[in-house]
Structures are given as structure tokens and as C-alpha cells.
From TrEMBL:
Keywords: Membrane, Mitochondrion, Mitochondrion outer membrane, Repeat, Transmembrane, Transmembrane helix, Transport. The gene is Mtch2. The lineage of its organism: Eukaryota, Metazoa, Chordata, Craniata, Vertebrata. Belongs to the mitochondrial carrier (TC 2.A.29) family. GO terms for cellular component: mitochondrial outer membrane. InterPro entries: MCP_dom_sf, MCP_transmembrane. It holds the Pfam family Mito_carr. Signal peptide: none annotated. One of its GO terms (biological process) is positive regulation of apoptotic process. This is Mitochondrial carrier homolog 2 isoform X2.
Length: 176
């Protein structure tokens, strides 16, 4: 768990750069061009803390996911599987995969909040109104998403959920 948390802390600045590079396509901006330029831009505008925007919910999600996955796999392997089966190792690997999928599904809201906080108010159109509200903290982001019923938005590849009641500037331009 410590190694995974350390890896998350070390790689999070690159995750922030990746997300901001992707979100700049919404406003057709070119603020983050290349690794060195992105590092300089974040440091100049937000300081060192800018590299760790959204780290807390990501760490919490990783820790809960790891704990949940290992606990469920232990319970399944200990109590649900018959030790006399010849394909016991194969069954254990399947149970690990299924519990990993289940744990990632349950901890998806942490990933969502982390990603939103990484691009929140970063000077790009996609991280600012009208595309995204400005959040004061990750808890504020969590509460707002929960209030709107959007904690699982983007979670499913096939069954997408469209938020009702949102109107964007581009939608208004199409109506005119």
C-alpha cells in the first residue's frame, strides 16, 4: 500500500499535465505544448501545489480500492472457493480480476473528483464556467456532483448518462 501511494504521489504531476493537455482541446487552446513547457506553465501560474491538484481524492481512491480488492479477493478465495479444485490457481486469478473490477467501480467517484480538481480553474476553457464550475476544494466538488446525481458520470462506456438542465454557450449558438 505504501509503494502504491508513493507511486501515485510521484506520477500525479504527469497525470495533471496529461489531463490539462487533453482538456485544452475543448477551447482549442495551446497552453500546454510538450512536457517541459507544461511543467514551466504550471509552476509559473500555480507553483508547486499546481502539480498536485486533485491528489487527495486520487490517493484516497487508490487506498480504498486496494484495500477493498484485497479484502474481497481474500474472502472469495478463503470461503467461496473449494480447495479441492484442480484449477484453484486459475480460479484465484479470476476472483482477483473480478474483485478488482468491482473495487474500481465503487471507487470511481474518487477518480472523477481527482480529474475534475486537476483541471479546475487552471486557465483553460474546459476547467472554467460554463463547461465546469469553479470548486473551492475537492470536498466541494464531491458534494456538488453528489447533489446533481453525477457521481458516476463517465463511468460506463456503453450506457452514457446525459446531465439534464445544463446549457452551454455552444448549445445556445446553435439555437440562434
Amino acid at each position: 500500500m505504501i509503494a502504491r501511494s508513493a507511486a501515485t504521489v510521484i506520477t500525479h504531476p504527469f497525470h495533471v499535465i496529461t489531463l490539462r493537455s487533453m482538456i485544452q482541446f475543448i477551447g482549442r487552446e495551446a497552453k500546454y505544448c510538450g512536457l517541459c513547457d507544461s511543467i514551466a506553465t504550471i509552476y509559473r501560474e500555480e507553483g508547486v501545489l499546481g502539480f498536485f491538484a486533485g491528489l487527495i481524492p486520487r490517493l484516497l481512491g487508490d487506498i480504498i480500492s486496494l484495500w477493498l480488492c484485497n479484502s474481497l479477493a481474500y474472502l472469495v478465495n478463503t470461503y467461496a472457493l473449494d480447495s479441492g479444485v484442480s484449477t484453484m490457481n486459475e480460479m484465484k486469478s479470476y476472483s482477483q480480476a473480478v474483485t478488482g473490477f468491482f473495487a474500481s467501480m465503487l471507487t470511481y467517484p474518487f477518480v472523477l473528483v481527482s480529474n475534475l480538481m486537476a483541471v479546475n480553474n487552471c486557465g483553460l476553457a474546459g476547467g472554467s464556467p460554463p463547461y465546469s464550475p469553479i470548486y473551492t476544494s475537492w470536498i466541494d466538488c464531491w458534494c456538488m456532483l453528489q447533489k446533481e446525481g453525477n457521481m458516476s458520470r463517465g463511468n460506463s462506456l456503453f450506457f452514457r448518462k446525459v446531465p439534464f438542465g445544463k446549457t452551454y454557450c455552444c448549445d445556445l449558438r446553435m439555437l440562434i
